[in-house]
Each structure stands twice: as C-alpha cells, then as structure tokens.
Amino acid sequence: MAGAGEVSGKGWHATPQAREGDRMKLTIIGGASAYTPDIILGLLQDHALYAGGELCLHDIDGANLRVIERLARALVRAAGADLRVTATLDRAEAITGSRFILTQPRVGGLQHRALDEKIPLKHGLIGQETLGLGGFAFAWRTIPVMLEIVEEVQRLAPEAWIINYANPAGMVTEAVIRRFPDARFIGLCDMPTGLQWAIGRLLRVDYRRIALDYAGINHGGWVSRVLLDGEDVTARLRRWAAALGPVASLLPLGEQTGTVRLFRQHGMVPDPYLRYYYYKDQILKKLLRAERTRAEFLIERVQQLYRHYADVAGQEQPVLKEHRGHPAHSDLASQVIAAMAANRPTRFVIQQRGAGAVRHLPPEEAAQFSAIVDGSGWTPIPQPALPRKEAELIARIKASETLNVRAAMEGDRSLAVEAAELNPLGAPRPLAEKVVDELLAAHRKYLPQFA
Hints:
It is built from 16 helices and 15 strands.
C-alpha cells in the first residue's frame, strides 16, 4: 500500500500529505441505492471542501443508477457546488483516483434479504437483516464482494479511505481487518448517531453537541455515558427513563419502547438492536404474525422512492420530500468524510479493530467504539468495562459472528453451523444444520466460495 501509515493500539494513522490544488474524487459504490440522494445532500453541506472535484456513482443496476445520476446533478446544481457528477458500471473506473470511497453494496438485493428473513422464520427463528441466521447469510454474500473491493482499492487508489455502510457491517469489518490489516477502512452504523439524534431532541439541543461513550459491536453495545458539550448528562436521562418506563412497558414493543425499557433495567443506553436478544420471544411472535417481512415492504417502498427521485430530478429547484432511512444515516457518512477531508478532529462511534478500547473483546478483532477521526485516521477512546452479564452476551454474539466470518471467507459449511449453534438467535443441531443448508441453497448464485 502506497504512503506511510501504521496500525497500532492507538488506531490507524497516515502521514498527512499536502493536498492543496487536488481535484478530490469521491466515489459511492452502490451509488444507485435509495439511500444515496440523502448522502449527497449531506456531502453538499460542506461542498467547498470538494470544490473542483468529482462525485462518481457506481452500481451494477444501470436503470436506477441513471435516475440517481440525474438527481445528483440537479442537487449539485441547486447547491451551487463546484462538483462534477459522473456515473459508471465499471467498478475499477469508479475506484481509480478516488480519495474517499463510500461502500454500500447490497449483494442479492432486497429479494435475497427477504429470503434471509423468511427462511429462519419458517423454522421459528428470528429473520433479520444483520442478526441471527439471516444476518449470517447476508455476511456470506457480502464479505467476498467487500474483500474484492478493498483489494481493488489498495491496487487502484492506495491512498483512498473506504467508509463502509455495507451490512452486516460488523462482520464485514471483521473480514476486512483479517484479510487487509493495514487497510484504510472505517466501518459505520447509523444506530449510535440515531441515539444522539433522539437524545438531542429530548434535550432540545443540536444532536452534534451530544457524544457517546459506546462499547460493544455493531448492533450490540451499550452507552455507559452521554455527554452534552462535555458534561455528563447520563443521570438526567436515567431519571427521564425511570419516569417513562411504566408507560413504555404498556406500549407495543418497538425500537423506541424497547430502548427505554432496556435503559431503565440496565442503567445504560442500549444499542436499539439489543431488544432482539432481550425480548426475543415477543419479537418472534410479532414477526410471525406479520403479513409480510420488512424486505417485502421495502421492495414496494423503494420503487415509490425511485419514482419520486425521477420526478425531483427534473425540477429546477429539487426538493426531496420522501427519504430512505433516518437523517442520521446520511449525516454520519458525510460528517466522517468531511472530518477527514478537512483534517478536523471529530468524535464518532466507528467500527474497526478494537485495540483494547472495548475491554471484554479480543483487541485484534473488530468492535464498535467511540473514536476521534481526522485526516490521518482514527484514534480509539478507551471505554469503561461493561458489567459482567451485559459483557458476556456481547462476547457470545461476537464469538459466533467471528466464526461466521471465517465460514464466509473459507466457504466452510461446518463453521457456519457451529456459528449458528453459538449465536443467541440461532438454534441447536440439527435445526441449525437444516436452516444453514436452506439458506446456502437459496443464495447459491451469490456463494461461489461454498461450492
């Protein structure tokens, strides 16, 4: 890899290089995603950083890529940004010369996400995009593609930073740091940022003034401390949760009510996805009663979004009235890229090698934790140890995901079954073998490593 840099317990740091006069190229792999327009709007908030540069969109979906390309040009024009928009079906062309590469491919599309959800449910297991056996199957499809992308980036754009949104993000990060330990790579998830956003609304302050002490893994961690302008406001939030807890317990279990309940019970703010583990039976019953899965709903919803995007692309002053996802999603990606482009040290929750920041997890493996990000890389912020029971659950989830990463990288069915047995949302043999085999068969087109 070109350029000086190092990976250590203090994170990843490159030797800063002069960039004056550079024509910066930003690339989005998975650029036809319905998430892309809002990410572009986020980038345009700091468009002066990229003046004279290029925004390159890459995807294998040519029809939707053309829609997003037209919309991107309209948004850039309306913002008065000096930014050239290009689009290509050629991934190597998109990567070459890039300085920042945002990765968000969805291997198999929403149709295969629906299989990730439906096949486990058929056997009485939670079907979810990133958790349990559904998340394991998504990792089998995504990890080989992401490793190809990282290899291509190191060859064609060795100084580029990869900012990853591809799910299941934690397992993707684990695979990348195993295969490419020196990669300029940061994994992201918008859940911690969504927590900041919700807490900001509660406290009636800009969510950017909120910082989290977060320790765990992707979709499995705890916030031990919430800071507002550096002041610890966790006790204030605990009083709020204690007051709302009885009401939340009477309402249907969802992301917000589940988060409040867990906060009240554990005294720490949970990653909202922890509800799948602590309220597994209730959530499974709800999923089994549903007329369609989340993916089946999204297949219809996303087509509506593309129609809206096509209409907006033709407007003189384009305004997005429909969105895919929470504002925290686009804000996080654009703010991380801006912090690195401007060499502006900023605190985020990221995914990378834990390097001891999360005490109960192996330091050489991927974790999710608070860190300072700037133009040279990332520096972990060591987190306090979690209580024993909470730490044990996260360690078990992590151990099962690490096994599944090996299964995806090696094409090893036996490791996939072992991971399924160990995972708290998995199953004992022989059911684990049966579900794994059905998922392998359903996704065979995208799993050449298992052949």
